[in-house]
TrEMBL record:
It catalyses: (6R)-5,10-methylene-5,6,7,8-tetrahydrofolate + glycine + H2O = (6S)-5,6,7,8-tetrahydrofolate + L-serine. Homodimer. Its EC number is 2.1.2.1. This is Serine hydroxymethyltransferase. GO terms for molecular function: glycine hydroxymethyltransferase activity. It is found in: Cytoplasm. The gene is glyA. Catalyzes the reversible interconversion of serine and glycine with tetrahydrofolate (THF) serving as the one-carbon carrier. This reaction serves as the major source of one-carbon groups required for the biosynthesis of purines, thymidylate, methionine, and other important biomolecules. Also exhibits THF-independent aldolase activity toward beta-hydroxyamino acids, producing glycine and aldehydes, via a retro-aldol mechanism. Its main location: cytoplasm. Pathway: Amino-acid biosynthesis; glycine biosynthesis; glycine from L-serine: step 1/1; One-carbon metabolism; tetrahydrofolate interconversion. Keywords: Amino-acid biosynthesis, Cytoplasm, One-carbon metabolism, Pyridoxal phosphate, Transferase. Its cofactor is pyridoxal 5'-phosphate. The keyword Cell wall biogenesis/degradation does not apply.
Amino acid sequence: MHEPKISHLAAEDPALADLIESEAQRQHDKLRMIASENYVSSAVLEATGTVLTNKYSEGYAGKRYYEGQQLIDPIESLAVERAKAVFGAEHANVQPYSGSPANLAIYLAFLQPGDTVMSMSLAHGGHLTHGSPVSITGKWFRPVHYGVEPETGRVDMSKVRELALAERPKLIIAGGTAIPRTIDFPAFAEIAAEVGAILMADIAHIAGLIAGGAHPSPIGLADVVTTTTHKTLRGPRGAMIMAKAEHATVVDKAVFPGLQGGPHNHTTAGIAVALHEAAQPSFKGYAHQIVANASALAVALNERGFDLVSGGTDNHLILIDLTSKGIPGKPAAKALDAAGIELNFNGVPFDTRRPFDPSGIRLGTAALTTRGLTEAQMPQVAEWMDQTVTAAVKEDTAALDRIAGEVRDLLAAYPMPGYTA
């Protein structure tokens, strides 16, 4: 059952409580490999379910527009100081509601409509808020994009420099949502300095790896750093902006009053807890284990004939082109879900298929690592994936049921935060 218990909810709204209990069991019984998901600790769950949700707190600590902030201010200040300590940042803002508003705040802080923004193409691993034409960031600003090389699946930084010199962007974004390789923040910083651009690092996917020392940090190199607080950082669904001290005022004004009203204080508390956890020595082991698991899984998938974009991974994320397997990403993802393996269909660089029916799948190892799985289990995970894709091509639903049962049997030995059997 769900832990902490939801007995009051069950009494008040049993239909909703049943759905939540079922979701808790679903999360327990599946290999959760969506790269942007994880399990938060019971302490984070408790913090986000407190009476802090009752309080409005427009403004910042010491400068609020509502009274009654005597205890809210120290909670937010605690989260801010912990963020600065964990990441080594000069300034931190923990109020953004999620990653997309955090990114939009950077546009508001530093750009005017029509200004040029340079970022990784969405089709090559970027993010909607990095200038996609369907996003406000692509409609109100002028996006130019770099991408990966077809032969290597990696970014050629010399070409990034050439594009920056030609286009003279006011903002350069490093990072994205489907990048399996180490991001060269020093090279991006040199390019931004050369063209006089603000450098923004979007570390939403790799924040936990950076906090744990398993990926190089952009702090001190980038002018501003945005991140979600879940994913590998293993906090609640929220976001943060970290910045050089010289940009603190303009960033804070962009968040409030520029884009938002009152912060979600219960989320702020959950972020504070997650940052406290990230400061513990055990978190470093967790971060490095995520990368070790992803590396081992990549090797096992390669051995089974899967075509990995860039040939492998340096972080938590693996991007796979399924063209050679004779099945598109969407039906493969649905078959894998039926087999107890949860991930998402995803476009791959130079994909010839439509975005909602792409050639690839994206997966990550953060949640598996939180459950306690190690390199030892990764060959079995790869084998189940291979069997599932083969079964999907053959429309063998019985095989999917069998694999789902085997997955449940394995996971029964690995406790899940937020659930008790």
